[in-house]
Amino acid sequence: MAGKVDPARLVAYDVLRAVHAQDAYANLALPALLRERSVTGRDAALATELVGGTLRGLGTYDAVLAAVVDRPPDDEVRDALRLGVHQLLATRVPSHAAVATTVDLVRRRVGHRPSGFVNAVLRKVGAHDLDGWLRRVAPDPDADPVGHAAVVHSHPRWVVERLAEALGERGDELDALLAADNDRPAVTLVARPGLSDVAELPGTPSISPLGVVLEGGDPGEVAAVREGRAGVQDAGSQLVALALARTEVEGPDRAWLDLCAGPGGKAALLGALASQCGARLVAAERQPHRARLVARAVGTTAGVVTADGARPPWAAGRFDRVLVDAPCTGLGALRRRPEARWRRTPDDLSALVPLQRALLESALDSTRPGGVVAYATCSPVVEETAGVVREVLAGRDDVDLADAVPLVPEAVDAAGVHLPGTVQLWPHRHGTDAMFLAVLRRL
């Protein structure tokens, strides 16, 4: 008879299986499962910690498991072992409880046959603490600094290499950046101008003048959030929207566009900012189901169209301000989407970079002379950021790169090192996602 498994660990395991077997997103799958099973309070908090912690530490935990097993376990067993290793090495759960609950979980979800194997493996893991294991499994930092950082900070090697390249001359900050990727992210709220005021939001001030850091609790319980007058949004995204609104334009300023609006967070803020200026935002999204999410987020502050931003249905030169929040690898938001580091590969860049260039070209074509385009990515990878902007600029004589740094005065030491005039935010330096921003002006 399998032992009783608490609901928090069952939820955590089932979310991990959904992430790895079905390509689910943990930030969507976890809340849905908690609601479906009515898991609340301390159990919900434990499940959240187990999911996030296990996904963030996956690379380290797999290296530890590889040192104690002589054959790769089945995927179902591997996810249970990862969950057990996280409890053993990175939580205050007593070792005996971490082992026993994981064994019971395997009996409940997989069957009795692998339970002895799981028990033996976890007892071997429990023989050393995390530092002891890192000394055993991480490559020598002098002989292989990238490999060492990859294991110690639980990032794929190629991601470490791309982040080191993105830091450029600030490469000595790599360990701090990788460590920040593994911090549990704070929940940041945004007050949408004209609809709410930052003073009515509970929490401490964030780097964004429109935001606060929620110190605890469910953001859905905040009245302004529940009523759609405020939202949950990383401070870096808030600063990108503010930068576009702060940019001077020549001539009329009535028509704004969010070219890639899904799921709607930036569009909701831009729509509110546009309304304050007497302008109107059009929010475009290619996928119908995401367009519906955008419509729900923006309410009456914007018009929503289902359209491919790379092949827009509107006339050229239609807009005064355009935001391109381009699809990207998401390697700047690993705090909030830890599974992205394991899901993305270098091959993704070969598809994303041409799309990013096409979207930026389309945005510029959609902007009238004297208007401006903000190009943003939630990734610091050079190919997706400075590389895209530099290549587009090289092919056009009707565009100039504006200096975006003064548009984000709240972010100290945020100048992009790969293309002067751009902005690069960092989680370890600014407490935000690693948002990139370039502002281009049609001549």
Automatic annotation (TrEMBL):
Keywords attached to this Swiss-Prot or TrEMBL record, sorted alphabetically, are:
Methyltransferase, RNA-binding, S-adenosyl-L-methionine, Transferase
Tell me which residues make up the SAM-dependent MTase RsmB/NOP-type domain.
Answer: 163-443
Has keyword Ion transport? no
Q: Where is the active site?
A: 378
Q: Which GO terms describe its biological process?
A: regulation of DNA-templated transcription; RNA methylation
Q: Which InterPro entries match?
A: MeTrfase_RsmB-F_NOP2_cat (IPR049560), MeTrfase_RsmB-F_NOP2_dom (IPR001678), NusB-like_sf (IPR035926), NusB_RsmB_TIM44 (IPR006027), RCMT (IPR023267), RsmB/NOL1/NOP2-like_CS (IPR018314), SAM-dependent_MTases_sf (IPR029063)
* Molecular function GO labels: RNA binding; RNA methyltransferase activity
Which Pfam families does the record associate with it? Methyltr_RsmB-F, NusB
Specify the signal sequence span: none
Residues engaged in binding S-adenosyl-L-methionine? 260-266, 285, 325
Purpose: May act as RNA methyltransferase.
Give the family per the record. Belongs to the class I-like SAM-binding methyltransferase superfamily. RsmB/NOP family.
Q: Which PANTHER family match?
A: NOP2 YEAST -RELATED NOL1/NOP2/FMU SUN DOMAIN-CONTAINING (PTHR22807), RIBOSOMAL RNA SMALL SUBUNIT METHYLTRANSFERASE B-RELATED (PTHR22807:SF53)
Name by which UniProt lists this protein: rRNA cytosine-C5-methyltransferase
Q: Which organism is it from?
A: Marmoricola endophyticus
